[in-house]
Design a protein that fits this description.
Structural class: alpha/beta
Shape: globular
Distance between the termini: 52 Å
Helix content: 40-55%
Number of domains: 2
Order of helices and strands: HEHHEHEHHEHEEHHHH
CATH architecture of the largest domain: 3-Layer(aba) Sandwich
Strand order of the largest sheet: 1-3-4-5-2-6
Strand content: 5-15%
CATH superfamily of the largest domain: P-loop containing nucleotide triphosphate hydrolases
Radius of gyration: 22 Å
Length: about 325
């Protein structure tokens, strides 16, 4: 990160220590934070690391001005947005977009995995989130990412104690969103795979008032995603790993697959080469046929996982 003064007047080094101390205090009080609340001074993901999603990236890129140049909104007689909801199927890149927004805005990235926070500390979850909101307000320019925000709500089958705690949590978060509203320092970004399950009191003007769809990629987007993963693997290996692939033939096997699925497929096809060489073979570069075979195996595995998840596998 560029050595610059933060909006609080603190140097990046001092702020980094403050954030480390903050996470240490949370850990001491509530237990391990990893996988629940994480903070990055500068996420590693940029827009060029995200394949496809041209429209979503364009809309997210427009939000950079809300954080880096809030005075532009005043110049044009309007206010910066307060909150954004990214919605779409799992694995389409919602978290990547939020990280890229923070990086391009030179903003601190607070990543709150709502599912893990609520299920781990449902009785104290608001206390945990309140601490995060308070720290965000003291940290200057930041993106506050509420990942899987629909998990704030328990369904009707849950015990009344959980549903009551959920209602209190939603109301309190709404109040915090009101408090940070249009500050220009903080942008709340929420994500969900189920927009119909997000509490309506949070999706309204002055709170989370912008909606951006993050859909499954079209073929051109899939091609870009494949290329990003192929280039990354070859950069790590320092050599060519892939033959001249027939992407049209490969993409025909990827119907309804997400960017995350494509990333897994590339990993698995390369793991196959590792296993072959470990067994004493001398495998050549990854071919189109290798890719197609791996996609078919991945699809079968994914179907079994889905059956297990919904109690259908016998």
């Amino acid at each position: 990160m560029v050595e610059r003064k933060m909006l609080t007047g603190h140097t990046p080094a001092l702020l980094r220590r403050q954030l480390e101390d903050f996470l240490a205090r949370l850990t001491k009080r509530f237990g391990e934070m990893k996988g629940k609340i994480e903070i990055a001074m500068q996420p590693e993901v940029s827009f060029k690391d995200i394949g496809g999603l041209a429209r979503a990236k364009q809309e997210i890129a427009g939000l950079v001005f809300a954080l880096k140049s809030p005075d532009l909104h005043k110049k044009w007689g309007t206010q910066p947005p307060n909150g954004v909801l990214l919605y779409g199927p799992p694995g389409t890149g919602k978290s990547l977009l939020a990280k890229a927004l923070a990086r391009e805005s030179e903003a601190i990235f607070f990543h709150i995995r709502v599912t893990n926070v609520v299920t781990k500390w449902y009785a104290e979850s608001w206390e945990v989130l309140q601490e995060v909101f308070a720290q965000a307000k003291e940290s200057g320019r930041c993106v506050l990412f509420l990942d899987e925000i629909d998990d704030l709500i328990f369904d009707r089958a849950a015990p009344e104690e959980l549903r009551a705690a959920s209602r209190r949590l939603v109301n309190s978060i709404g109040e915090q969103l009101d408090d940070i509203g249009h500050s220009g320092d903080i942008l709340a970004v929420a994500s969900t795979n189920r927009p119909d399950a997000v509490d309506a009191t949070l999706i309204r003007p002055g709170r989370i008032d912008r909606l951006i769809e993050v859909p499954l990629p079209e073929n051109e987007g899939k091609r870009e995603i494949f290329q990003i993963h192929l280039d990354r693997a070859e950069a790590i290996a320092g050599r060519l790993l892939f033959a001249d692939l027939d992407f049209d033939a490969i993409l025909a096997w990827t119907v309804k697959m997400s960017g995350a699925d494509i990333g897994e497929i590339v990993q698995k096809v390369l793991e196959g080469k590792v296993q072959q060489e470990g067994a004493g073979a001398q495998p050549g570069p990854v071919t189109t046929e290798d890719m197609q075979r791996t996609i078919e195996e991945y699809r079968k595995t994914k179907e079994i996982i889905e059956k297990i998840r919904y109690g259908q596998y016998l």
